[in-house]
Amino acid sequence: MDTFLSDLLSSLLATVLSVGAGWVAARWLRELPVLLLGWLTGLGKVRVHRGQRKANDELPVVLSRARWVKVLAGRGNEITRDGFGVLWDKGGDSRLEFVEILLPDPSAGAGSWLSRRELEMRRVDPGFTAGLLADQVCLNAVYIQQLARRSGKVRLRFYDLPNLQRVILTDEVAYLTVYRSDEHGRNSPCLVAHRPGPLYDYAENLFAAAWDSGVSAEVR
């Protein structure tokens, strides 16, 4: 009986190890072409997630070791969720220098880039009624403003620019989600670029341009 149990446990362990090794190898093989492309084109170390949701799973670890964080969001829902929770928990951490957040201007009205994005979403999601996207941005802005009052390290601005991407930038890595017109941002592909590299620099310059043209965030 003891021999049978020992053989059974050994077999189960071998199966688990084989499956685990196969999963790691499969993931590495999936990422290899992108890594090679980054090396050949000079883009640096780049990875691709098929959907933004997969990239969000990495955020707690990435944000927990960040010295600073910059976010350009399409509406900012993720900022209020668990992925960013570790960032707000470390608000008193002396290593965290600042957090800068850009949200679309919810008061820009008809013809704004936010309203154009809303029209795109209404074509694919019947739950998107007129003004819903602006309302969500306002709620998220109120949440961020509360964080800013508690910590002098959080800054918020509004922008009225093409709502085409989400950028999460730290001193080590950039997450660049390229929005599709027929999908929610969470289902759109996400590029991960490490510093140093041209794609990281692009994300940093994109955020800087949007921040410089942004306006003071006042929820009306």
Overview of the structural elements:
With 220 residues, the chain is an alpha+beta fold. The protein folds into two domains: 1-30; 42-216, 2-Layer Sandwich (Endonuclease, Chain A). Helix content is 48%, strand content 19%. It contains seven helices and eight strands. It has helices spanning 2-41, 52-56, 59-64, 82-89, 113-124, 132-150, 198-213; strands at residues 46-49, 68-72, 98-104, 154-159, 165-170, 173-178, 190-194, 215-216. An eight-stranded mixed sheet has the order 1-7-6-5-2-3-4-8, with helices on both faces. β5 and β6 (173-178) form a beta hairpin. 28% of the residues are buried.
Strand and helix layout:
Layout (H helix, E strand, L loop, with lengths): L1 H40 L4 E4 L2 H5 L2 H6 L3 E5 L9 H8 L8 E7 L8 H12 L7 H19 L3 E6 L5 E6 L2 E6 L11 E5 L3 H16 L1 E2 L4
Parallel strand pairs: 2-3, 3-4
Antiparallel strand pairs: 1-7, 2-5, 4-8, 5-6, 6-7
